[in-house]
Specification:
glycoprotein; five-stranded antiparallel beta sheet; single chain
């Protein structure tokens, strides 16, 4: 893996345990505790900072759940049990094999692992209609610090609450999720409309901020922003790609858009009607491929340019629309950077806003307009390229401060960012110190997460650079 190549000072695990059965995980916990080793658990793979397979805190063992990929669909009750080592692509494929009118509300990248994605929240293209993944979880199986296998009833409602958005790795090893499937129409509509600055992108993005959170919840329009070639030869501009899923046909979508967002100029030829499962391929950039490509755990997703050998991501939340002047300042800054800084604006509202901020640890509910993901990726090896790109995205993140949430400046756990702060190495981290990053991810829910952690893992065995601390 490129992360382990020089000059990156990343320690490798002492041993990787690819458990075949649950008792192997229990044994790994017992042995690691006995010998003073840390455990890192990799489900299907997700963490931006790689905390599922690296540790900056000392010798560690990695428990890899790659063999835990079982998925059992109950069509009659619209539920499924999915083991934590599966990917969301595998889950989507398996659902579609059983029913054309069932789906699940989670992310767009098929190779993201269920274990991390669900425990951190799980935003996706149906979230405005059905909520995020954690809003549709009804049970789980978890192995705790004492090696006990617990379900919702035996773990209790506090722990069940904590693992649905609080990051499962702080509390135990989640081995399976019981999820509530959602109804999808036989026909959905997708579109991607590109607009550059020369094509009035600034005014369109500005209006999008007032529309995207309030529009019909069956419609989700996100924006991908980055550099593109200008109509002026030899010059660059900023392009906004409006990428959308509508849970219905184009004949209903077009008048809806004409009424609510005519500035985009959507026309019938922009709209593509397809099944929900084919929309998964569309957003992954592999339209036309056989559905079983979703089973490919190393599929390269092309709709976002996280495709370099190296990558850094960050996130923000926006609660007040950015002015046109503010957007123009952002575009100028993007174009000034030699590095390719990309952004993704993802709208909230709908079902996301109807659920209480404290119903799950995921606090970004009513009042949130959209979330921003920042990304920089590069292919050049070596420390110089690493430092240059890391400096660029950190500078840009600092530049964005006036436009995003404050006190705290919020972040999305599933865009893990160690720049926000880390736990102490080898000694206890205080509640106050962990609050620096904990409040950004969890808001008002951080204190309750700390109390749950203290109760279920008082010795802080399950820990990482941003795990929930004990009191």
């Amino acid at each position: 893996m490129n992360r382990f190549l020089p000059p990156a000072p990343i320690p490798k695990p002492l041993v990787i345990i690819t458990s075949l059965v649950e008792s192997h995980i229990q044994a790994a916990i017992y042995c690691s505790k006995k010998h003073g080793m840390q455990i890192r658990v990799r489900s299907g793979g997700h963490d931006y900072e790689g905390l599922s397979y690296i540790s900056y805190q000392g010798p560690f063992v990695m428990v890899d759940l790659v063999n835990f990929q079982s998925i059992n669909i109950d069509v009659e009750n619209s539920t499924a049990w999915v083991q934590a080592g599966a990917t969301i692509g595998q889950l989507y494929y398996t659902i579609a094999q059983k029913s054309p009118t069932l789906g699940f509300s989670a992310g767009v990248c098929p190779t993201v692992g269920v274990g991390g994605h669900f425990s951190g929240g799980g935003y996706g293209m149906m979230s405005r209609n059905y909520g995020i993944a954690v809003d549709n979880i009804v049970d789980a199986r978890l192995i705790d610090v004492n090696g006990r296998i617990l379900d919702r009833k035996s773990m209790g409602e506090d722990l069940f609450w904590a693992i649905r958005g609080g990051g499962g790795a702080s509390f135990g090893v989640i081995i399976a999720w019981h999820i509530k499937l959602v109804q999808v129409p036989k026909k959905v509509t997708v579109f991607t409309v590109n607009r550059t600055l020369e094509q009035n992108a600034t005014k369109i993005v500005h209006k999008w901020q007032y529309v995207s959170e309030k529009i019909d919840e069956k419609l989700l329009i996100r924006i991908l922003l980055g550099k593109a070639n200008s109509s002026q030869v030899g010059k660059e501009t900023v392009q906004a790609s409006f990428v959308s899923l509508y849970l219905g046909g184009a004949d209903t979508l077009l008048p809806l858009m004409q009424q609510s967002f005519p500035e985009l100029g959507l026309v019938r030829s922009d709209c593509i009607e397809m099944s929900w499962i084919n929309s998964i391929l569309y957003f992954a950039g592999v339209s036309g491929e056989p559905l079983d490509i979703l089973l490919n755990r190393s599929l390269l997703v092309t709709t976002v340019t996280y495709s370099g050998s190296y990558f850094k991501g960050k996130s923000d939340y926006v609660t007040e629309p950015i002015s046109e002047a503010g957007l123009e300042s952002i575009w100028r800054t993007v174009l000034e950077y030699p590095e390719d800084i990309e952004m993704q604006f993802s709208p909230y509202g709908g079902r996301l806003s109807e659920i209480s901020k404290s119903a799950t640890p995921f606090p970004h509910r009513a009042g949130t307009l959209y979330d921003i993901q920042y990304a920089v990726s590069w292919t050049e090896a070596g420390k110089s390229a690493l430092n240059r790109n890391m400096r660029a995205i950190r500078r840009f993140y600092s530049f964005m401060t006036p436009y995003v949430t404050k006190n705290p400046r919020s972040a999305y756990l599933n865009c893990r960012d160690l720049d926000l702060g880390v736990n102490n190495k080898g000694k206890t981290t205080s509640y106050e110190q962990a609050s620096i990053w904990g409040l950004k991810y969890y808001g008002i829910n951080f204190k309750r997460l700390v109390h749950v952690k203290t109760k279920v893992d008082p010795g802080n065995f399950f820990r990482n650079e941003q795990s929930i601390p004990t009191l």
